[in-house]
Amino acid sequence: MHKVALTIGGSDSSGGAGIQADLKSFVTAGVHGTSVITCVTSQNTVGVKSIYPLPVNEIESQINAILSDFEVGAAKTGMLYSPEVVKLVAKKMEGAKLIVDPVLSSTTGHSLSSTGLSDAIKKHLIPSCYLLVPNVPEAEKLCDIEIKSMDDARRACISLHEMGAENVLIKGGHIKGDAADILFDGKKFYIFVLPKMDRKAHGSGCTFSAFLAAFLAGEDGLVEAARKAKAYTWSAIAAGISPGRGVDIVRQRADHIPVLNVIEGGHEAGSYKKHYEEQMEKARTWLSLQNAVDELLSFLPPAFVPEVGINFVYAMEGASSYEEICGIEGRIGRKGKTGKIFQSGECRFGASKHIASIVLACMRHDGNMRSAMNIAYSDDVVKACDEAGLESASFDRKDEPPGNSTMEWGTDHAITLLGRMPDIVWDEGGIGKEAMVRILGRNPGEVVGKARNIVAHLALK
Predict the structure, then answer these.
(1) 153-208: per-residue pLDDT in tens?
(2) Predicted confidence (pLDDT) at residue 332 exceeds the cutoff of 90
(3) Are 148 and 170 in contact, with CB atoms under 8 Å apart?
(4) 393 and 325, same structural domain?
(5) Which domain holds residue 355?
(6) What are the residues whose beta carbons fall under 8 Å from the beta carbon of 418, sequence distance 6 or more?
(7) Based on the structure, what is the number of domains in the chain?
């Protein structure tokens, strides 16, 4: 039977948040979405114009219709608006796997609640929910703890758990620094962190709790659902669009999902910091590479794609193994008749061996040379490299000693022969081996800059 998730919240006429965002998230996560509408709002990307609460008996009728027909794996609440609706939801959803997103205001700063809502949530919903998912201002209002740091968030998690929530996840977007969320299951803390983006994204909170419900409705446990929800929501914010005159609207998608490792921490303050820093370096490495790939796809001619495809890698600082180098799992390819180039597969650590070997060879000569990509070889491309002021080095596969990795040996050999680090390493191939040009750089942005320079000089011919 198909997995089913339920959202109980308000309708957003802008299509960015509320029920609309939830249903888009459910589809993206691969579950069937059902909905109960509590309020109809007139809003856009600038603000909320009006709120029309539906009669409580109509809300109850919707819930009855869903529960009498569907086996709901997990449900989430969004905009409940009034204490009466909170009481109804607590009663009707008793025993369900309920994720409570205590929505009090919109991204644009407008109130989405009537008098007494937070008290009703504390009294009726928190004691019966499986997972409470407040942002920092909501958590502060619910537990009366000022949250300025991760350690404050930990104390707030414990307080909200003691109020009855089985599990608590506080979203850290309002805390200074990177976007770190903290989950407490009553015994252990789990931290999920990715680089913070400097943008207001309409629907991000709804999208996050919807992804949580979707993944929990499937086969995922709590920690894995939270990890995936964080990564998918971050990707939706990164892909945000600006269809209106106000804030951006998130765009849910199932690709370009960042690397995100779970950080486990004890009760003691600061126990997570080492792993936090490792995760942030990994996330920034992934982000730099993915941004560069996106830029590359915008200008690279199809003729630059070799038969084996393009891979593009970026190593973590001090990398010494493939697992510390991020690459494209399926490479950059070229579609048949159209010739359009595309990214096939996600950026993942350990996804490349051939181009990663080139970077490892470069790093033995210069630890700062951490990025590389391959493009198709031609005499014109090599000439364009020279005309662009890029220094080239080459090797002959015939000189390769037995038992060596061609990419690693060839790169090391070319650098040694030149006596310094080049921008380009090329070879003319061999029997069953395609000729290739490799572009080297300190980071993916530098590699893309060199590729753009080569393309520009070829265009002048």
Answers:
(1) 999 999 999 999 999 999 987 677 777 899 999 999 999 999 888 777 899 999 99
(2) yes
(3) no
(4) yes
(5) 281-459
(6) 391, 393
(7) 2
